[in-house]
Design goal:
The complex is a heterodimer. By secondary structure, chain A is mainly alpha-helical. The radius of gyration of chain A is 18 Å and the shape is globular. Helix content of chain A is about 70%, strand content about 0%. The two termini of chain A are about 35 Å apart. Helices cover about 40% and strands about 20% of the residues of chain B. In chain B, strand 1 and strand 2 form a beta hairpin. Chain B has a 4-stranded antiparallel sheet with strand order 4-3-6-7, with no helix packed on it. The longest helix of chain B is centred in the middle third of the chain and has 29 residues. Chain B has 2 domains: about 80 residues, Anti-sigma factor, zinc-finger domain (Arc Repressor Mutant, subunit A); about 170 residues, no CATH class. Chain B contains 6 helices and 7 strands; from the N terminus they run H-H-H-H-H-H-E-E-E-E-E-E-E. In chain B, helix 5 runs antiparallel to helix 6. The chains are: A mainly alpha, B alpha+beta. At the A-B interface, helix 3, helix 4, helix 5, helix 6 and helix 7 of A face helix 1, helix 3 and helix 4 of B.
């Protein structure tokens, strides 16, 4: 029997349940498991380590205060936290009050990406999808998703017509869908 | 291009949060009555979640962990939530003619909307008959949407008639169709919310499983409120619905507060 069999890692739901009862060690374990998901997203958006650390702190502290905000029906925890990190980082970037409560973030992610191997496969597919996009499509999608720009702002920044930007974003998302659906 | 197709084209922009406020508001109204767009949006959000999850970069510095642990040590959590009794305070069934008519109209509209949407999907597969039938169906669907919109619009005046001399009691009506996860809930005469509290609608599965959160809401000045198609799991048969008073910023995984109104399936 391996050591992993003797001491299986607690599931996300088990950790959340322990956090609900005030277990600080469980909170630390959840942080150790997912801070490496949250922080890179915040850093990618904010391009500032100090601001990204603030977002990281804010998200896990809110999870400590309200662990019931996460339940399995809202999607797997890694993807859920990544999306919340993106939302909160863009809110910080645009210096606005957070728009979404944790409770409002519901995801449908197939397959379940709880396992590292599944996540690694998904990351490979996302890279394939981005490589297959034209540079202008990729740039429009990245400006919208990681910079939080509206399509009007992207049009202004690039000097392209609004309709062109909309089409690029739609096409980029369709390309992503095709690759992830395989 | 149909109204539905125009909205469907904007879904990627909505999923990314790049629509203007007016465009977003219009699309959200459409989403309230369009299950296929809601499903499509869910898939897009899932795809975008994978994009976020695929972001690579350095690990956070060790000081972030220390800072978090110091912060949570200063904020000990409270005890676990209380269960909600399911047999108390049963909601009295609506008895006034007005209420019966309103609920019947709303139930009928749900069936009309659902039927029309299903028909429209079929029409899309059959382009030959689309030209002759879709115009009429779209007009009816728009008409039904307008009526539903009027029912749920917070600006609409809602007056409940009761026997003269009787004080209006809090009441609610949930119209639920589990096949397509449609739920419309109306409430009236609800007491004003205490500070930092919010009402929450719950679906109690007939399987006896844990209650499912079906939407947070605040009543208007007259105590009226509406919840339309909250996110719900598929195929859950409902034994009961209830509204509880919950902390505005607290847990919504299971009911904590005392039921304000409660009913039984019809």
């Amino acid at each position: 029997m391996s050591s992993a069999d003797r001491n299986p890692m607690p599931s996300d739901l088990a950790l959340v349940a322990a956090i609900r009862s005030g277990n600080q060690e469980a909170m630390a374990a959840l942080y150790d498991r997912y801070s490496s998901v949250v922080y890179p997203v915040a850093l990618r958006v904010l391009q500032n380590t100090s601001a990204a650390e603030d977002v990281l702190q804010d998200i896990f502290l809110q999870l400590w205060r309200n662990p019931a905000a996460f339940d399995a029906s809202r999607g797997n925890m890694a993807a859920w936290l990544a999306v919340i990190a993106r939302h909160r980082a863009i809110d910080a970037l645009r210096r606005r009050k957070p728009e979404d409560d944790f409770e409002n973030v519901v995801l449908s992610v197939q397959p379940d990406l709880a396992l590292d191997a599944d996540r690694a496969r998904a990351m490979t597919k996302v890279r394939e999808a981005f490589d297959a996009m034209s540079p202008s499509q990729r740039s429009a999608l990245e400006m919208a998703y990681f910079e939080g720009l509206t399509h009007a702002e992207i049009a202004q920044k690039t000097g392209e017509p609004l309709g062109t930007i909309k089409t690029r974003i739609r096409t980029a998302l369709l390309s992503l869908r095709k690759v992830l659906a395989v | 291009m149909s109204v539905h197709e125009q909205f469907a084209e904007d879904l990627p922009l909505y999923a990314l949060g790049t629509l203007s406020e007016d465009e977003r508001f219009a699309l959200e109204r459409h989403l309230e009555t369009c299950p296929s767009c809601r499903r499509e949006l869910e898939v897009m959000r899932g795809d975008l979640a994978v994009v976020a999850l695929s972001t690579t970069g350095p690990k956070p510095p060790a000081r972030s962990r220390e800072r978090l642990l110091a912060a949570i040590a200063e904020q000990p959590r409270l005890a676990a939530p209380l269960a909600v009794p399911t047999s108390a305070n049963a909601l009295r069934r609506a008895s006034s003619g007005w209420a019966v008519l309103r609920w019947a109209a709303a139930a009928g509209l749900i069936l009309i909307v659902t039927g029309l949407i299903r028909q429209n999907s079929s029409l899309e597969r059959d382009l030959a008959s689309l030209k002759t039938r879709f115009g009429g169906q779209e007009s009816k669907l728009q008409q039904a949407n307008d009526i539903v919109a009027a029912l749920v619009d917070p600006e609409s005046q809602k007056v409940e008639l009761v026997a003269a001399g009787n004080k209006p009691q809090p009441r609610g009506k949930a119209i639920y169709q589990r096949r397509n996860r449609s739920l419309i809930f109306f409430a009236s005469n609800l007491p004003p919310l205490p500070r930092e509290k919010i009402y929450e609608l719950w679906l109690f599965p007939s399987s006896g499983g844990a209650p499912i959160a079906a939407g947070l809401f605040k009543p208007d000045g007259n105590g009226s409120a509406t919840v339309v198609n909250p996110p719900l799991p598929e195929g859950v048969a409902a034994r009961n619905f209830a509204v509880t008073l919950e902390p505005e910023s607290g847990s919504h995984e299971s009911p904590r507060g005392t039921p304000v109104i409660m009913g039984i399936g019809e």
